Amino acid sequence: MYEKDGERYFIVDGHVHFWDARPENRNRFGEGFIKSFYDYHRNLGPEEYLWSLEKFEAYSEDDLLHDLFEIGYVDHAIFQPTYLTDFFPGGFNTTEQDAAVAEKHPGLFTANGAFDPRDGKAGLAKLEALHDRYDLKGVKLYTAEWKGASRGFRLDTPETARYLEKVQELGIKNVHVHKGPTIWPLDRDAFDVKDVDGAATAFPELNFIVEHVGLPRLEDFCWIATQEPNVYGGLPVALPFIHTRPRYFAQIIGELLYWIGEDRILFGSDYAIWQPKWLIEKFVDFQIPEDLQSELGLLTTGIKKKILGLNAAKLYDLEVPAAGARAVAPQPASAA
Fold first, then answer.
1. Is residue 332 part of a domain?
2. Strands (E), 182-246
3. Are strands 138-141 and 113-114 parallel, antiparallel or unpaired?
4. Does residue 178 belong to any structural domain of this protein?
5. I need a surface site. Which of 98, 141, 175, 203 has the fewest CB within 10 A?
6. In the prediction, which pLDDT does 228 show?
7. What is this structure's pTM?
8. Residues 20, 217: contact at Cβ < 8 Å?
9. Distances (CA, A) of 312 to 26, 54, 209, 229
10. What per-residue confidence (pLDDT) applies to 323?
11. What is the DSSP letter of 308?
């Protein structure tokens, strides 16, 4: 839990990974993919948090625990798997990898599952088996993932609807969808947000968390999400601009607050691309510049608490300590 100026913030990092991008577990596309991630790591984060490429390719479990829970203020973290087996034959960041860590550290992690509608009936059976094994609370979809000759899939097709029906049948509520900047060698158009609209309308009982808030298609995302009350915005990729482009970040967060409101925005560090420690510290200290406040409003402490953890806690039925949801009473001065 993070504490600043007498306020305590319950932190749910809604977007973390434990990936394996070692040279022995990748082809040339996998090499380009992890180097694309590394470019984001180098260009958007503070210098003191930069890693070597070698460490970035395969950091340790100890690194993960230290950066999230020992120094990163995180109370609970949600693993978002990304299989990418066409690039990483052993899997880049799978449910199985994530869950192995989560099971060793009860209460610290939620390990989400994944599906790919191009897997047909076999994929439906695999999704059910994942749920039976790990009691899934959410799934993460990577619509631009390659599979043989196919270079992506859409959310608003009959094939995907079969899987969303299965998700609903299994009692899984949260569907995280990567809809952000392109990553080499994936196709930009496969990350387009427009297929979220039909899926959210067809499955109103599911929560669709659009990771990276559709960047660079923020306007499209906002126009869709304001019409679909079950669409949420995840801040990974958007949030690091608080360091390199604070006025740009102010525009992003201001637009999100205007269109979808403070109850549907979720914090995520995208670890290990960035570390939660500096993101949380900067976000708690951040305020929309004065000359933009008449249009974009203010970031209050209450709003920050919702974004940093309370909103995700509600989606995932996480218990929030009372101190994480209210101001801390000032302590009386010690007697002289």
1. no
2. 207-211, 231-234
3. parallel
4. yes
5. 203
6. 97
7. 0.93
8. no
9. 33, 32, 10, 15
10. 72
11. I
CATH number at residue 67: 3.20.20.140
Measured CA distances, 132 to 18, 136, 172, 311 (Å): 22, 8, 12, 26
Which residues make Cβ contacts (< 8 Å) with residue 156, sequence separation at least 6? 195, 197, 198, 199, 202
Distance of alpha carbon 116 from alpha carbon 119, whole angstroms: 6
Structure tokens at 276: 């939660």
pLDDT recorded at residue 332 = 35
Domain that holds residue 154: 2-316
Domain count across the chain: 1
Q: 8 has which bridge partners?
A: 3
**Cα distance between residue 326 and residue 336, in whole Å:** 30
6, with CB counted inside 10 A (0-12, 13-18, 19+), is exposed
Secondary structure letter of residue 335 according to DSSP:
P
pLDDT, averaged across the chain: 94
Pair 268, 311: CB distance under 8 Å: no
Q: Which amino acid type is present at position 316? A: Y
